[in-house]
Amino acid sequence: MPLLPRHCFSLTWTPDIPIYSLLPVKCRKPSQEKNMIVLEHITMAAFKRYLKQTKTIVFPFGTIEEHGSHLPLNTDSLVIQEVLKKAAKIRKFFLAPLVYYGVCTTTGDHPGTIGITPATLRRISADLVRDAYRKGLRNFLLISGHGGSLHMSALKETAEILVDELKGIQIAVFSPYDLLWKEFAELAETPNDSHAGEIETSIMLYLAPDLVKGRAAGEYPRIPRPFIVKDKMKYWKGGVWGNPGKASREKGEKAVQLMVDAIVAVLDRKI
């Protein structure tokens, strides 16, 4: 028998009495949020029931990747998860578990970055969509919190193959950063802001402020384009692209709302 079968409890300090007390609070499972269909939280019976309501599934993709000395390695993953949770309260779709690993090239040598190859990402994403198709889903959104060029190319190559292979599907592949580059450029004070810079730091200040460890120094990579270099850290030591010092929670809140709105707009489109 579970110790607390009927209630959740919170640990509460009572000022008048120098002890901590356990007070019952209302429990709420993550999957019980309004309109949210969190795939890993539902049963197979619930899956069949929800399938009558929507044929759309969203697969989030993130990374374990350096984000300067001030942001956590899961920044891309955390941001896209939280943004999609907000979108899932507005529109009904199956929200699949995050794929935590992605293709990291320019940041591949930095401490903490652990990535996969484009071939692996193509295989994983193709397998996921094919099996979801077998289960009756027909509309697929592959949404990435990481906007690396080879990473996004791998997902788009997969989509090109699947749209020819699977009858009656719709598939979209994008990173919100690609859709909103103009809006984010207007929101940022920093010119050419990008990785772990003003906007990304602002988003983390809004979503997970406890994980932001101060501010890294402003920096821009000095990789001699169009050359491909082996020792990328020689040209980009701090792993920051922009000026995190300009970040604010208020900018982060605006950026997150722009991302949610952009995703909902894609969900609403029919082709």
How would you describe the shape?
globular
Gyration radius from CA atoms, angstroms: 21 Å
Strand content: 5-15%
Low-confidence stretches: 1-32
Q: Kindly give the count of domains.
A: 1
Beta strands, count: 7
Look at the structure and give the mean pLDDT.
Answer: 90
Order of helices and strands: EEEHEHEHEHEHHHH
**Structural class of the secondary elements?**
alpha/beta
Count of separate DSSP helical elements: 8
Give the CATH H-level superfamily.
Answer: Creatininase
Report on the biggest sheet: 5 strands, parallel
Characterise the protein shown here.
There is one protein chain. The protein is an alpha/beta fold. It has one domain (8-268): Creatininase (Rossmann fold). The protein has eight helices and seven strands. The protein has helices at 44-51, 75-88, 118-134, 149-165, 176-179, 181-187, 198-207, 249-268, and strands at residues 8-14, 19-25, 37-38, 56-61, 94-95, 139-144, 170-174. Strands 3-5-4-6-7 form a five-stranded parallel beta sheet, sandwiched between helices. A hairpin with a 4-residue loop joins strand 1 and strand 2. Mean pLDDT is 90; it is low at 1-32.
